[in-house]
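Researcher: Predict the fold of DUF4194 domain-containing protein.
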Amino acid sequence: MIAYYEELDDEERDRLRNVIQVLYRQTFLLERKFDKRTGRMAVSGEYRTGSRHFEFLKEYFAVAGITLQENMHMGLIYIQGETLWGEKLPRLATIYLLVLKLLYDEQMAAVSSSSHVVVTMGMVNGKAGEFHVLSSLPSPTEMRKTIALLKKYQIIEPMDVLEELDENTRFIIYPSIHAVLLGDDIRELLGTFSEEEYGGEEAIIQSTLEDMPE
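Model: Structure tokens for DUF4194 domain-containing protein follow.
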């Protein structure tokens, strides 16, 4: 394994090192991301590197008891293991994350031919309202801050300018939404996420892949 790494040139080593760090940080690599310059989905360089060195990475993570897998249908390379810890998220980010997963699953169930889906801010807040988990509409500042956080972890990608955020602002939900939630019933979980019980607190979302179709 070490010999394989040492045979790479410096540039490729840097790419591989970056991929390892990304996998440890967010547990997944996306095959395609939205490119605002072209308005299209583009293949990720990180994913190409991960795919190119997949067998090496698989052995590397196995040393730490972590399993590396690839889901070609979803366009994800991801890690699983009991040693991985979840990230603590603010309450609004947790609510949005659960709602986004629900919207993603609903659209994919409608025989979607793509691994990503597009929703609007109005759809997200509307779905949250259906479960009565928000006592009032968050302020534009709160929504922008939350969207920026979820974008940071490559869960979503805004298609429109966040400074002009309104109910028509569009977002791409990446298949990585699977990588940050357990396989619980999202509707049931949202149903227990009442304003009275969780007001002002933070929640932990487990960074572990649920079972997905190959």
